[in-house]
Amino acid sequence: MCYNSTTGEEVGRVELPVKRPTACTWGGEELDELYVTTRVESGEGRSEHHGGLFRVKVEGVKGVAAAYEFVL
Fold first, then answer.
1. What is the pTM of this model?
2. In contact, 11 and 43? CB cutoff 8 Å
């Protein structure tokens, strides 16, 4: 979900075919791809795509570059 930082109003939402998204970050050359990891689910009723990594393009939204660099 995305919220207006002034009003607290929800202004956007990304729906995923899983119950438990765990973390997200922006990526891609233009920082216009949202990457979301998801938790492994167990038991009856688990999502078909649990434990996966999703890449989502959110129209009109981009991330910002990190304030630090990783040395690989």
1. 0.74
2. no
CA distance to 16, 38, 65, 70, per residue, from 21 (Å): 8, 4, 22, 25
- Asked whether 18 and 47 are in contact (CB, 8 A), the reply is yes
CA nearest neighbour of 25 among 69, 66, 71: 66
Domain range list for the chain: 16-63
How does residue 71 score in pLDDT terms, banded at 50, 70 and 90? low
